[in-house]
C-alpha cells in the first residue's frame, strides 16, 4: 500500500552540523607525476550550517544539492563499495577509482581488462570485482606495498581449470553446440555477495555459483532462475537472488557441514517485471526488492526463515528501480528516473517516504550508505550513468519532518578527477 505524504503547514528551519567544503590545492606536480596524486582536492570540516526545510509536498520536491560531485570515470559508474577508509567506484575494467575519506580525494586507480565492472564487494583485506568477461578478480589491500590494491587471483583459478578440464562430465551445455566447464559463467557476472567464508556470484547466464574464500575453489553451480540474475544479498546464512524473471529466491545450506545449497523459498514480484535489486535487514526479518515497474516490494520472513509473506509495495519511482541500500531504519532506492528516494521503515516493515533527492543527470545505477553517523544523519554515495559519483547527507528528522523535502541552500563541491 502506498502511504500518502503530507506537507507541514509551514517551513521549519534548523541548524545541523554537516560537512562543508573548503578547497585545498596541493603543490604543483612535475610531468612525471601519476594520476594517483590529484592536483586539487576538497577537504570537509564539521561546521554548523543552516538548512531551510521546504514546506513543499514530496511530489513537488526540489533538487537536493550534493555535498560533492566526484568526477573522473571514463564511463558510467556501475558499482560502489566501502573498503575501510576508502570508497571504491567502478566503471570500465581499468577504471576502478579509490577515493579516500573524509577529504574525498582520488587516492589511486586500479583494475584490469576492457569490459565494464559489474559488481564490487570487499571482505577483510580483499576486494572482489565481477566483470563483463565472466570472470571474478581478487585484489589484496595492503598499505605495506606500493601497489595498494594488488591482483592476487582470477576466478575460476588456473588450478580449478586444470583439475576439471580433462573430465567430460565437468562440462555443461550453455547454448546449442557450445559447452563450458560448470565452474565458468557463460555470461556477464552481474552481482556478488560474500558471507561465512563463501563468495556468491550471480550472472546473466541464470546461474548462481558458490566459491570458497580460502582457496577460491568453485564449490557449486546452481541453475537458479529462468532469466538473468540482477542482484544478490546474504543474511543469517541465507542468500537471496533477484532476477529478471520477477522472483527473489532464498537459498541456504541445510547445515554448516553441508556442501550444497537448497531452495528455501520464492518471493514473487509483480507479473511481467524484472527485479533489479534486493536488500535484507540486518536481522533478516524483512526483504525488499526493486522492480522495473518502479515499485519497491517488501516481504517478512518467519522466525525459521523458510517462509515469507508480502507486507508492502510502494510506487517508489516513475521508472525502473535500479538499485537499493539499507542503513538502519532507512531504505534508499535509485532509479532510471535519475532520482533517489529515502524511505523510513516502520516496525511492521512498511515504508514511509522520508525525502526525494535529485541531482544526477542520468539514471542512478548504484547506492552505498556509510555506517558512520554524521551530525544526526548518514552519508550516502550514488553512482550514475552520467559518469559521476555524488555524495549526500541524509538527515534523521523527526517523524513529521520526514514527510517533507529538504533543500540544501549551499553550493555543492565538485572535484574533477584526472
UniProtKB/TrEMBL annotation:
**Alphabetized UniProt keyword annotations:** WD repeat
A Pfam family that this protein carries is WD40
In residue numbers, the region (Disordered) covers 20-39
Q: Where are the WD repeats?
A: 182-221, 357-392
Low complexity biased stretches: 20-31
Instruction: Please verify whether the record's keywords include Protease.
Output: no
PROSITE patterns in alphabetical order: WD_REPEATS_2
InterPro entries according to UniProt = JINGUBANG-like, WD40/YVTN_repeat-like_dom_sf, WD40_repeat_dom_sf, WD40_rpt
Q: Do you know which CDD domains this protein is assigned to?
A: WD40 (cd00200)
Specify whether ATP-binding is a keyword of the entry: no
Name listed for the protein in its UniProt record:
Protein JINGUBANG-like
Give the species: Sesamum indicum
Amino acid at each position: 500500500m502506498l502511504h500518502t505524504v503530507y506537507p507541514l503547514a509551514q517551513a521549519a528551519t534548523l541548524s545541523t552540523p554537516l560537512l562543508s567544503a573548503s578547497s585545498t590545492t596541493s603543490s604543483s606536480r612535475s610531468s612525471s607525476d601519476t594520476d594517483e596524486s590529484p592536483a586539487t582536492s576538497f577537504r570537509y570540516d564539521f561546521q554548523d550550517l543552516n538548512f531551510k526545510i521546504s514546506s513543499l509536498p514530496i511530489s513537488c520536491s526540489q533538487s537536493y544539492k550534493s555535498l560533492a560531485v566526484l568526477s573522473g570515470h571514463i564511463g558510467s559508474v556501475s558499482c560502489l563499495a566501502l573498503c575501510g577508509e576508502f570508497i571504491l567506484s567502478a566503471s570500465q575494467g581499468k577504471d576502478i577509482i579509490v577515493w579516500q575519506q573524509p577529504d574525498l580525494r582520488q587516492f589511486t586507480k586500479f583494475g584490469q581488462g576492457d569490459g565494464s565492472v559489474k559488481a564490487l564487494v570487499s571482505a577483510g583485506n580483499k576486494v572482489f570485482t565481477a566483470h563483463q568477461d565472466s570472470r571474478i578478480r581478487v585484489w589484496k589491500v595492503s598499505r605495506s606495498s606500493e601497489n595498494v590494491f594488488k591482483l592476487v587471483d582470477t576466478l575460476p583459478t588456473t588450478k580449478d581449470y586444470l583439475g576439471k578440464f580433462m573430465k567430460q562430465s565437468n562440462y555443461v551445455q550453455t547454448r546449442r553446440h557450445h559447452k563450458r566447464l560448470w565452474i565458468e559463467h557463460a555470461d556477464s557476472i552481474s552481482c556478488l555477495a560474500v558471507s561465512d567464508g563463501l563468495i556468491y556470484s550471480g550472472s546473466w547466464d541464470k546461474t548462481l555459483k558458490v566459491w570458497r574464500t580460502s582457496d577460491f575453489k568453485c564449490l557449486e553451480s546452481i541453475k537458479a532462475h529462468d532469466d538473468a540474475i540482477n542482484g544478490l544479498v546474504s543474511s543469517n546464512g541465507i542468500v537471496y537472488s533477484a532476477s529478471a524473471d520477477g522472483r527473489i529466491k532464498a537459498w541456504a545450506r541445510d547445515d554448516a557441514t553441508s556442501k550444497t545449497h537448497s531452495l528455501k523459498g520464492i518471493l514473487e514480484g509483480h507479473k511481467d517485471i524484472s527485479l533489479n535489486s534486493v536488500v535484507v535487514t540486518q536481522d533478516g526479518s524483512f526483504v525488499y526488492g526493486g522492480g522495473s515497474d518502479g515499485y519497491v516490494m517488501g516481504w517478512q520472513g518467519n522466525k525459521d526463515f523458510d517462509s515469507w509473506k508480502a507486507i508492502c509495495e510502494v510506487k517508489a519511482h516513475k521508472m525502473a528501480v535500479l538499485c537499493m541500500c539499507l542503513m538502519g531504519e532507512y531504505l534508499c532506492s535509485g532509479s532510471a528516473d535519475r532520482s533517489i528516494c529515502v524511505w523510513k521503515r516502520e516496525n511492521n516493515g512498511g515504508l514511509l517516504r522520508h525525502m526525494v533527492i535529485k541531482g544526477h543527470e542520468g539514471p542512478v545505477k548504484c547506492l552505498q550508505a556509510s555506517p558512520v553517523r554524521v551530525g544526526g544523519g548518514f552519508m550516502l554515495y550514488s553512482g550514475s550513468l552520467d559518469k559521476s559519483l555524488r555524495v549526500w547527507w541524509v538527515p534523521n528528522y523527526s517523524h513529521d519532518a520526514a514527510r517533507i523535502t529538504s533543500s540544501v541552500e549551499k553550493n555543492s563541491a565538485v572535484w574533477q578527477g584526472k
